[in-house]
Design brief:
Blueprint (H helix, E strand, L loop, with lengths): L1 H8 L4 E4 L9 H28 L6 H18 L2 H10 L3 E3 H34 L4 H4 L2 H27 L8 E2 L6 H5 L7 H35 L3 H31 L7 H26 L1 H16 L2 H4 L1
Parallel strand pairs: 1-3
Antiparallel strand pairs: 1-2
Helix pairs in contact: 2-3, 2-4, 2-11, 2-12, 3-5, 3-11, 5-7, 5-9, 5-10, 7-9, 9-10, 10-11
Length: 321
């Protein structure tokens, strides 16, 4: 009796991030891939921010939301990747108790903020195509800020209770997190108590965050497609829809990889490594591809980046001092 009581009061103070359990010996091999992914994500999203900031042509709601998405993607990947890279390269796998839950909170929050931001962007495109005459009166600067801020507030507010409840559970060891970062479900498994409430709450939030935005985006796009089909000229149709295509591709990649990840966790035969790889791909693929998709598909952004790089190369160094 005494020993059990003693053990259950022993609260662990740190967690050990295992990474990919089956690929423990290949950390050094994985490092360059993750480093490259992180650098591409940072560079691509920074370029979008610079393009939107420096080009007056891009001072419109659509690009304001895109810049917002780039900020989210930079923060989203920065909550997990630097620590992952230091684990892969330096075998630095210990994370403090507080650090672990902060990482979990910010990772989940930014993922959620991204979901709602994609909804806001769909709404922006919906008004632009279905109600073009009232676009400027409906989507004002204040409305843009309000919509973007709502996504941030919702993201933090939805995730906060789940993370706080998980952090308050007793953890008496083992403290090895079978994941690349402090993922909610991976950490929850380590609690030495019944976690049914946490599991239900986690599931409810995950479904809310994925299903509601997905439905809202679908509704927007059904209405957009109906509107576009009513446009008489083929050129007009193409032009109207081309502003949506980048957003639509991003949405499809984001939600399909999220659902795939989610389903893989519900299939018992799926290996732990495959599950972790799914989450990692889902978490790093969208932030990395967003700028690439928008740059490939968007002439205005390409022009702004080219113009900026030319201007930079023309400015003598002395002027920058």
């Amino acid at each position: 009796g005494m020993e059990i009581d003693n053990q259950s009061t022993h609260q662990i103070t740190e967690f050990i991030i295992i990474g990919f359990p089956g690929l423990q010996d290949h950390d050094r091999f994985l490092f360059p891939f993750f480093l490259a992914a992180y650098l591409v994500t940072l560079t691509g999203n920074m370029l979008i921010l610079i393009a939107v900031k420096t080009s007056h042509k891009l001072h419109t709601p659509m690009y304001f939301f895109l810049a917002n998405l780039s900020v989210i993607d930079i923060l989203y990947t920065t909550t997990t990747l630097p620590k992952m890279l230091s684990k892969l390269l330096l075998d630095d796998k210990v994370i403090s108790f507080t650090g672990c839950f902060l990482q979990m909170f910010f990772f989940l929050s930014f993922g959620t903020i991204e979901c709602f931001t994609l909804v806001v962007m769909a709404y922006d495109r919906y008004v632009a195509i279905c109600d073009p005459l009232r676009y400027n009166t409906k989507i004002t600067k204040e409305v843009c800020i309000l919509l973007a801020a709502s996504a941030w507030v919702l993201g933090f507010a939805l995730i906060f209770p789940a993370v706080i409840l998980t952090a308050q559970l007793p953890y008496c060891g083992p403290n090895s997190v079978y994941h690349c970062f402090c993922d909610h479900s991976a950490v929850l498994k380590l609690a030495c108590t019944d976690t049914i409430v946490n599991n239900i709450l986690g599931l409810s939030i995950a479904l809310t965050v994925l299903v509601i935005p997905c439905i809202l985006i679908l509704v927007s796009y059904v209405k957009i497609i109906i509107s576009v089909l009513k446009i008489a000229s083929g050129e007009g149709r193409r032009k109207a829809f081309s502003t949506c295509v980048s957003h639509l591709i991003v949405v499809i990649i984001f939600f399909s990889s999220a659902c795939f990840t989610y389903i893989s966790f519900r299939i018992p035969s799926v290996t732990v490594d495959f599950r972790i790889m799914c989450v990692v791909l889902y978490a790093f693929l969208t932030p990395m591809l967003n700028p690439i998709i928008y740059c490939l598909r968007n002439k205005e952004i390409r022009d702004a980046i080219t113009k900026f790089s030319k201007v930079e190369s023309l400015i003598p160094v002395t002027e920058n001092i």
